[in-house]
């Protein structure tokens, strides 16, 4: 149906990658619905181009620029910036019904049957099951509802600081009013639940239709070697099921990374895949040739003052420190330690 759509949100290039994988997973499972991505103004041009190849509609939402009620709401509650961007999905009134999905979700089968449900349908949150998890929900775009939600935001704020608190406050009878609005947990299976109730996961997990990578560490925070299918990095967070993570990386490295390469062209970028990092750096080294060593020392000392978080951001913006910390020699050394 042309007037029904899956909608997601990406406010930066990392979440954009999640959105790319989500969109690809929906296409792979032959959805008949439209795909819409709401993006923040920070999403880079090449990422926008890839999203446009996967999604029917990519819409830049800049609440700061909007000059309307959303902007006013934002001025009263500046801490809810991303939330206001998400609530923007209610303004997509050229669709009669939508399913919102977080960019850190991925579908494992066709889920078009969710459009048989009514607003607001969602699955229980594993942390507090009388609240719904706002990573996957069915809604009806409406300017009126959007206005009421914004008003609710300014009056009550969010009890958890994000959209889930607001939506649970606004649709407050979800837990008790209508059981048909309770989506089965398999439509929003968070990896956290696997560890909190393993026997249930063993019993029902095989039927999972949507996996939600809840928690701090997202799939794109890892590093993947497409040859060996090894996922590495992020020791602190074991809450992700390895099979789901591998599904994500297989789709990302096979279907999304080639598109990113096409859109970035000569511009370097950090794909997160070991072999791509390697070949990009080789290309750069052969181009830059001799000028490398003369700058290497100064650059190296400069980059040591940068935190690893800053450095990661630089990578993602395509500003790798090729002459210093991210030089071929250093990356080669790192790769060698993995290969041992
Ligand atoms: Mn999420």
Automatic annotation (TrEMBL):
Its EC number is 2.4.1.186. Its cofactor is Mn(2+). Residues 296-307 have a biased composition (Low complexity). InterPro entries: Glyco_trans_8, GNT1/Glycosyltrans_8, Nucleotide-diphossugar_trans. One of its GO terms (molecular function) is glycogenin glucosyltransferase activity. It comes from the Eukaryota. GO terms for cellular component: cytoplasm; nucleus. Pathway: Glycan biosynthesis; glycogen biosynthesis. GO terms for biological process: glycogen biosynthetic process. Residues 284-319 are annotated as: Disordered. It catalyses: [1,4-alpha-D-glucosyl](n)-L-tyrosyl-[glycogenin] + UDP-alpha-D-glucose = [1,4-alpha-D-glucosyl](n+1)-L-tyrosyl-[glycogenin] + UDP + H(+); L-tyrosyl-[glycogenin] + UDP-alpha-D-glucose = alpha-D-glucosyl-L-tyrosyl-[glycogenin] + UDP + H(+). Pfam families: Glyco_transf_8 (PF01501). Glycogenin participates in the glycogen biosynthetic process along with glycogen synthase and glycogen branching enzyme. It catalyzes the formation of a short alpha (1,4)-glucosyl chain covalently attached via a glucose 1-O-tyrosyl linkage to internal tyrosine residues and these chains act as primers for the elongation reaction catalyzed by glycogen synthase. Belongs to the glycosyltransferase 8 family. Glycogenin subfamily. This is glycogenin glucosyltransferase. It comes from Pundamilia nyererei. The lineage of its organism: Eukaryota, Metazoa, Chordata, Craniata, Vertebrata.
